[in-house]
Batch of 2 targets.
Target 1
Amino acid sequence: MRYRLYQPEDFPALYLLEEQCFAPRERFPRHLMRQLVAKKDAATWMADASEEDPKEKLAGFAIVEWSRAAEERVAYLHTLEVGARFRRQGVGAALLRHCIASARAVDVGSFWLHVAVDNAAARALYQSQGFVARQREEHYYGRGRHALTCALALRNVS
Ligand SMILES: CC(C)(COP(=O)(O)OP(=O)(O)OC[C@H]1O[C@@H](n2cnc3c(N)ncnc32)[C@H](O)[C@@H]1OP(=O)(O)O)[C@@H](O)C(=O)NCCC(=O)NCCS
């Protein structure tokens, strides 16, 4: 597996994976995804599988964005997606670690994300990387689809 930053020509493969990972009502609309990957204060990490077939080349991707809130810089994970046949091989954890490293590189103090309460795989992954659930947000993903806000401190508060 090779981990690298997104390039504009990756968009078709990236959005195909979005369509494979999420049902239509849960997906980022194409135009919003295009805006996200083009943001300046953000990083999109790609995981390339070694196969030659371009349709199977992208194993996963993750997008983190950072901004200043009150006293410190905070990062937010917009999405983390791994193709079905590449799961449980450490790809999701590695992509998340790359996002965390990008955030650390710009001196982010805390890293946040939302995860659906019923997404056991993602919750286990985030927990394994040190994220702690802080708050439950009712109907965050639409009616009856609740979320947890999870956080990871990257710097000790003095
Ligand atoms: C969630 C997702 C990104 C996990 O990616 P992955 O590459 O399979 O995760 P990893 O192999 O790096 O798993 C790391 C750890 O997370 C936990 N984990 C991952 N998938 C799990 C599952 N299905 N059940 C239980 N624990 C799981 C385990 O602790 C795992 O370590 P282990 O394999 O040594 O036990 C992947 O399932 C996915 O893309 N799902 C669809 C999109 C999605 O829901 N994204 C998250 C949006 S918030």
Target 2
Amino acid sequence: MGERSEKSILIAGAGPTGLTLALELARRGLKSRIVAKAAGPTPIHESRALGVNARTLTLLEASGVSALILAKARRLTKFKILAAGKPLATVETESFRSRYCPIQILAQGETERLLLQRLSAFGIFPEWSTELTTVSGDVEKPVITLQHANGRVETAEPDVLVGADGAHSAVRKAFGFGFPGNAIESRFFLADYRYAQPVDTGFIELNFLNPGVLGRLPVNEDTLRYLSTDADFETRIEHPAMVLERTWSSEFRISFRHVETMSRGHVFLAGDAAHVHSPAGARGMNLGIEDACWLAFLISEGREQEYSSLRIPAVKTVLKDTRRNTAFITLKNPVLTGLRSRLLPLVDHLPSVSTAFLRNAAGQDTPPPPWIPGAQ
Ligand SMILES: Cc1cc2nc3c(=O)[nH]c(=O)nc-3n(C[C@H](O)[C@H](O)[C@H](O)COP(=O)(O)OP(=O)(O)OC[C@H]3O[C@@H](n4cnc5c(N)ncnc54)[C@H](O)[C@@H]3O)c2cc1C
């Protein structure tokens, strides 16, 4: 497709959201400039997101990224739910009728590298170590300052400015977008362990400790991630093989926030810059990729002013779902945790409950992309 260059588009941020936006614009013949404060993509062993859902694979088919993801990713076949090590329920992903498995496992750093690979085919390369530091002008005519790694300071006046610059978005703050919401009380802990031999990576396990929870997720053929609300969780891990090393550990708090509007004038927000929530459900990266695909489609149609009204309902749906899932897994009251243990075994006998759960995990609870015929 020939290149159109009616508008100068500057994307601040080269995480999954910014890279997808630049790629989706490029495949429609629209060139953009993409800058990032980071020196490069997410290091693979520090990948926050691990789940690529079916909606993302549908969205990234046209750019060729889905085929690359599928060649590298691992299929999840089961979600196992336990209480104090005792099995309560199992949800099999094979029962889900869709072109793609609801969730495939691939480290965020790998997904970013595949997006970069396809982007480079259009001659677009992010300018790394380039930080948006200040803004002047207003949302109708944004003027931004970029600080380059060599100390050079540059002023740019793009026709369209997109803040895909993560949860602490400089674009969001500088242009005064509100970011209402709240943080939850529980702290979360994470540790990735690499083993001396390949381990079973086909399932996610959620073990309710009552109180607290210990999650086990695959990272790659010999590495597993453990997530917990219990600071002492590592003593409770039953390692499936000899540990070689703990490759990453982290501690984080969870906030649920989203902007009231995702655009003002010629300034747009996408991904974590516009919404943050709990990782329960593996939706964050996928939602940012979905924002980026919608924004690219709307810009190419000259309809970008519809972006916020079309995306905010999807954002609200995902925040509501992840809030409910997080409340469910972080229950502390012994009466409620006891009730949860009695109700969960019913899931095995209620196909409508597992279907709703898998549809949610697949990211198919938000409006399908209208530019992809028959998309789910
Ligand atoms: C423990 C954990 C597990 C998670 N698991 C999942 C999962 O399984 N599935 C899922 O979908 N999501 C998951 N997420 C969420 C996911 O990691 C994020 O939603 C995703 O990284 C957001 O992508 P983004 O591109 O919007 O922002 P980011 O990935 O944060 O990228 C922001 C980009 O902006 C750049 N930047 C920042 N400031 C500036 C500036 N001033 N100027 C220029 N550039 C700037 C950065 O350098 C970077 O390139 C998880 C999160 C956590 C914490």
